[in-house]
Amino acid sequence: MRASLIQIAVDEDESVASRRQRAASLVRDQAGSDLVVLPELWTTGAFAYEEFATEAEPLEGPTYEVMAKAASDAGVWLHAGSIPERDPEGPLYNTSLVFSPSGDLAAAYRKIHRFGFDKGEAVLMGAGREPVTVRLPGTTVGLATCYDLRFPELFRSLVDAGAETLVIPAGWPERRRAHWTLLAQARAVENQAFVLACGTAGTHAGVPQAGHSIVVDPWGEVLAEAGAGEEVLTVDLDPAKPAATREQFPALKDRVLGLAPPRH
What we know:
- Keywords: Hydrolase.
- It holds the Pfam family CN_hydrolase.
- It comes from Streptomyces collinus (strain DSM 40733 / Tue 365).
- Belongs to the carbon-nitrogen hydrolase superfamily. NIT1/NIT2 family.
- By secondary structure, this protein is an alpha/beta fold.
- Helices cover 26% and strands 28% of the residues.
- It has seven helices and 15 strands.
- The strands form three sheets. The chain has a six-stranded mixed β-sheet.
- A hairpin with a 2-residue loop joins strand 7 and strand 8.
- Helix 1 packs parallel to helix 3.
- The longest helix has 15 residues, at 177-191.
């Protein structure tokens, strides 16, 4: 399985419509890949809070239409990153879209853990409630977004639902880049799964982005890592590796669930 992570740069002088078309062109360039991944909130920038409401769109809005066609044109499974979704009956959501090679919507995931500590995304967007997996030929993909990476219980639920590959689009800041790499490897090791973590380059509302998109195998080995700028990271993955790792080192079967609270 060939995966391509498009670490697109967010330039504040580039319009959302222009960046949308540029991202679609980059997706089409990956026609030889099986799975293509874009970052979190690449239309607006993950820290451009004032843009969320003005650029929010319905699920089947402009980004949906452009990305569905790009997936179909390239003949790839496309994780189109996330958009600020405007639910006509509720709040905004940070919503990821996954398209099949025919351009059909295969899955949508509303980010569960919102970043901001009672500011920013945490108050401007609603929280998703449901973990989401999607079946691709040869692997089951579990979906998570950026800040979700810090919450291992979400990834356990994805693995329990059959996930063997964990895809994490992000708008991760440069000042916490060490955490990005560490947590991506930890989620791979503890879940014995591939991790495909795709970040943005550039600057979002004055916040420099980490870049350094990364692909980690089920043993925690870094298979590929991008630099800081705009880049496409392509790597070939053996879809049998998670099952082989879990058989060779069957740690997941030794999980102890439902522990009683600690005694004081």
